[in-house]
Design a protein that fits this description.
alpha+beta, 5-stranded antiparallel β-sheet, globular
Length: about 150
């Protein structure tokens, strides 16, 4: 392999390491925001928490990472960046590939208190469809929280 080939190989490896580190940071940020949101919800109650979750200066919207709350039957209870969805049953909502990802979330939470789901969704910052990975966690028997980040 010539020097140029070695340099390209090294550059590709460095890019992979940086990309993996960025994804790990986003994943950690999503988990931290989830914990913060559920603690806040339990402390101040639903009405105040939802107001705080939607406030761009409240600390619960961190770029592409924000809070969504749904009930187990599939109704959108709160969405920090798209209030038009609130009150709608979105259990059958499909992602860009036609996948009913909310059904996947409910299936996971019927067996465990938390988990991860991947799907394609519109990034509120870029307005483009991207691969999203969301952490889901039960807040109680009726509600679960969603905090996700884009991997591309």
């Amino acid at each position: 392999m010539n020097k140029l080939g070695k340099l390209f190989g090294i550059a590709a490896m460095l890019l992979l390491v940086v990309t993996q580190a960025d994804a790990a940071d986003k994943k950690a940020d999503a988990v931290a925001l989830m914990d913060k949101a559920i603690a806040h919800f339990n402390k101040v109650g639903a009405d105040q928490a939802y107001k705080d979750f939607s406030d761009p200066k409240g600390g619960f919207i961190q770029g592409e990472i924000y809070i969504v709350v749904q009930d187990m039957p599939g109704k959108m209870v709160h969405h920090s960046t798209n209030p038009k969805l609130i009150g709608k049953n979105i259990l059958g909502l499909k992602d860009a590939d036609g996948r009913e990802f909310n059904k996947d979330m409910v299936a996971i939470l019927q067996k465990a208190n938390d988990g991860w789901v991947k799907y394609k969704w519109s990034n509120p910052e870029t307005k483009k469809i991207g691969q999203k990975e969301s952490y889901i966690k039960k807040a109680n028997n009726d509600l679960y929280f969603i905090v996700g980040y884009y991997t591309d």
